[in-house]
Structures are given as C-alpha cells and as structure tokens.
Write a structure and sequence with these properties.
single chain, Quinolinate_PRibosylTrfase_N, Quinolinate_PRibosylTase_N_sf, pyridine nucleotide biosynthesis, alpha/beta, TIM Barrel, 12 strands
Length: 299
Amino acid sequence: MSRFAEHPGGAGLDERLLACRLDPEDVYVAVQDYLDEDLSHERRDVTSESIFGPEHTSTVAVTARADGLLAGLPVAHAVFHAMPGDVDFTYLAKEGARIRAGQVLARVTGPTRSLLAAERTALNLLCRMCGVATHTRRFADVLADWHTTVLDTRKTTPGLRAFEKYAVRCGGGDNKRMGLYDVAMIKDNHKEAAGSISEAYAAVRAAEPEIDIQVEVETFEEALEAVAAGALFLLCDNMSPKELGEVVEAVGDRAELEATGTITLDTAVDYAATGVDYLSVGALTHSSPILDIGLDFEE
C-alpha cells in the first residue's frame, strides 16, 4: 500500500496504478516533485488562497478539447489526491479508449483551493500522455495488417519515462527497454571502443550471463557477424527497406530484427513489408504533440 491510501478516497488508486504497470510509490514521489515545482515546497497558490477559504468546495470536469486516445487518468487522479482535503475522483472513460472533443473524461470534487492548485500539473501530465498514446495509435493502425510491432526508445522526457512508456502501451505499441539496466545494447561506440562486435558481445555475455543482449548493426556484414557471435536480437540502424529486406532474408529466424532510423508514418509500411519484427520510433516520445484537455468548473 502506497502513501496515496493515507489520503481520503485514495485506497483504490494503488490498484489502478498497478493495473497500468506503474509503481504507486514511485508515482507518489514523482507527483510530489511535480507539485513542488509549481507550488514551491510550501505548496502555495497565492491567488486561489486569496479568493477561496479552506471550506469552499467545487466540482470540475476533466474535458477533452480534441479527438485522441486516453492515457493517464490514474496519474491525474494521483496529482489531485496528493493535495490537502477530501478529493473525490470519478472516472468516466477507460484507459486506451478513443475519446472525442467535448467528452468528459472524469469529474473531481474537493476543496476549490486544492483543485486549482493541482490543475496545471494534472493537465500537463494528462495532455502529454494522451498525446503520446494518440501518436502511437497512428503507427499501430498503419501496422495493423503486418506482423510488426512499433516500439519506443529511451528518447523520453527526463522524469516522465515511466509515464510516457505507459502511454505508448496504451496506444498499442510496446516498450523496448526501460533503461540501461534491464537490457544490454551494444551500439556503435561500444563496437569502436571494444574493437569489434564479436569482442563486445563476448564481454557482455561473460559479465551478464542471463541478460538479453541486443546488437546495433548498420550493414549486412555486421548483421551476419552479430548472429555468428550469438546475438538473438539485432537493431538494424538507418537501413533502407531494400537493405533491411536482405538482412531479414539472410538471418531468417536465427534472431529477432528491429528497424530504426527516421521511420515515419509514411514509410512504416515499407519497412514492415520486409518482414522485420519491430520498428522503433523515437518520435513516439520525443516529438508527439500534446492532446488538448481542459478543466471546466460545473455549477
């Protein structure tokens, strides 16, 4: 049980976050930092405190201003529940669902001061996560007729990686790796410093016998060298669809193959048609526009 459960009405929040594969305690700590950024460590909204007394309550509607895909309501819920007072958060839409402009996604009732103080932090996170999910869904839809999955990368916003990667999952994509700690990836600089792909691979395997190892390759010859060294997962970097197709044919089922580079919605099918297993797209997290969502007071 995380510290969210200490707040009135927060007991069910842990379960919702766990269902999103988000650690409630990590979310709690992150939310505190985000709120400190906007309200200072003293947690002051001087405008709202001047206008409303501590007993004044309101109900607000979290409303979509544009069409898109929903991701992040439990995170927005966490922001409101980190504020003082009894806050009731009612979910009116499901994670991963398509949403329409004008649709009410949730209603929140609580002290007016708390609602206004949490508003921007909650919306910043929700708009960002919905934007990532919406952009990811566009790739997933383009690839729907192919046996190719779109993946994210480590090109995430500092402090938001877990949330952005969750949003990718909501959009129909998958997570490549969470960081440098859970999957080994031998990239160009590793190869150069070690002397060769084979030497780098052998060093990692000796040090980490159980960990998954991915090898970045830029040419047909490097792909064959990596497979010969024992690699079961190749990252084919900046190859054309023609070059990638040759690697797919030569490697066969000896290794899983992922294509990366400047892959766009317009070129995704060209790469998928080669038979590659995955496309990794950094733009899912570093270039997705936000989805406009607002907070409306209700009478």
